Amino acid sequence: MGASLTVIAIVIIYLGIMILIGYISSKKINDNEDFLVAGRKMGPWLLAGSLAATEVGGGSSLGVVEKAYGEWGFSAVWYVITMAIAFIVLAFLAPMLREAAVKTVPEYFRRRYGEANSLVTSIIMLLPMVGLTAVQFIASATILSVMTGWSYTMSVIIVTVVVTLYSVMGGMYSVVYTDVVQWIFIIVGMALIIPFTLQAGGGFEQVTANIPEAKWSLVDGAGWGTIIALVVMYIASFTVGQEAVQRYYSAKDGKAAKNASYITSIVYVLFAFIPAVIGLFMYGMVENGQIDGAMLMERGAQYALPVLAMEVLPDVVTGILFAALISATMSSASSNLLAAGSIFTNDIYHQYINKNAADGKLLKMVRYTMYVVAAFSLLTAIWNVSDIITLLMFSFTLRAGGAFIPYVLGHIWEKASPAGSLASLFLGSLAVYLGEKEFISFFGLDPIYLALIVSGISFYVFSRLFTEQYEHRDL
Q1: Could you tell me the Gene Ontology terms of the biological process aspect for this record (predicted)?
Q2: Count of C-beta atoms within a 10 Å radius of residue 290
Q3: What does the pLDDT look like over 441-453, one tens digit per residue?
């Protein structure tokens, strides 16, 4: 199944524009700080567009359609609405995060708690980056392979090359500017599919005739347990996630960071319903026999949205939608690449390998690291095409379990100590791992709850027992 030349041409032009933005952005890079945090000059609207595009990736586009088509039904909206709730909470933390004037989360741990904490945080933050980036490559390649008929492997390689090129050229500048363009494509492209689907299916009543009433429930499919767990996971993960907080570090001031959070949460609530409704319409049209479900049975529900587009949309709209879907996944991938490059260079290379590295040398190392992470993510994407949201949730939870408590409380509790932070990092992350692998169970709840409780208790107890502060603390 392949698309028309019109569709392929639109997507190729779009990919070319992304690389062009990267090239133009590269002209703004004068030093390492420009590359990592865009010279700390970003206003609220640019930041909001970037935050929105960064966290709406494969899970929030293809993944939500897949979940709505599958067992979650309409309650799949919560996968994105819970992100909006997290950003409302982050709005209160954002000015505080910006005031720290660091470039990375591990740099904060180094200044607040010392070298050992920084190294452990760097490792915890770096580990999920390959997985998170691979998830986005998988989603992008899924779209390209369905659209063009090219092999999945070739599609992954093309996506990897484009994302890596524009990210490496312009750093935070190109990531933010491409994010804003990508967010416009995501909103327009995915919204357009709804009226065309209804037209192709004979109207709302015809499309929804065979959708069971249970699938329209706003809660039942996902369940309150999952919804609450998502809120907790997002708050904990976004707060310490380098790809998210690097935006706050790039804000021109605390007010810009706070307003960007509010704008992002509003946009997420509006966006959440689009992929969920598409997934339900897809289900209805398959049940009605209007769309052949054979390809879904053969390849899995993650192909739901590309298949629907090929069936019901005119070529130009299909091209816009595919560009939008690739936007959603590429924006997240580019943020993860920049985050990985920032952490390795700023907190491992500069601290332990070459303490006297000149600014130009550091800039080169960020770019080299991004190439390496892209290569590992490419290999992971080729080998692993499992459920998009499951992969995302594990990576999010791993880093959130240990780092959230010492990161947030370190800003507001004077007596937080290096020993408390270290205990929290180790024991919280361990609790996540043991919970995910089902070695231990916490009343059948998501492992993030146990991890945060273990992390919080160990942070407080060890800070009280070992009160010595890091002597060079300087924020």
Answers
A1: carboxylic acid transport
A2: 16
A3: 877 788 888 999 9
Print the SS3 string covering the chain.
CCCCHHHHHHHHHHHHHHHHHHHHHHCCCCCHHHHHHHHHCECHHHHHHHHHHHHCCCHHHHHHHHHHHCCCHHHHHHHHHHHHHHHHHHHHHHHHHHHCCCCCHHHHHHHHHCHHHHHHHHHHHHHHHHHHHHHHHHHHHHHHHHHHCCCHHHHHHHHHHHHHHHHHHHHHHHHHHHHHHHHHHHHHHHHHHHHHHHHHHCCHHHHHCCCCHHHHCCCCCCCHHHHHHHHHHHHHHHHHCHHHHHHHHHECCHHHHHHHHHHHHHHHHHHHHHHHHHHHHHHHHHHCCCCCCHHHHHHCHHHHHHHHHHHHCCHHHHHHHHHHHHHHHHHHHHHHHHHHHHHHHHHHHHHHHCCCCCHHHHHHHHHHHHHHHHHHHHHHHHHCCCCHHHHHHHHHHHHHHHHHHHHHHHHHCCCCCHHHHHHHHHHHHHHHHHHHCCCCCCCCCCHHHHHHHHHHHHHHHHHHHCCCCCCCCCC
Rounded CA separation 115/344 (Å): 14
Query: For residue 83, how many other CB atoms are within 10 A of its CB?
Result: 26
451 and 397 Cβ atoms separated by less than 8 Å: yes
Q: Do 25 and 250 touch, CB atoms closer than 8 A?
A: no
Task: Name all domains of the chain by residue range, CATH numbers in brackets.
Answer: 5-385 (1.20.1730.10)
Residues 33-86 pLDDT 10s: 888 888 888 899 989 988 888 777 666 777 788 889 888 999 999 999 999 999
**Each residue's pLDDT tens digit, 291-334:** 777 766 666 666 667 777 777 778 888 888 888 878 777 888 88
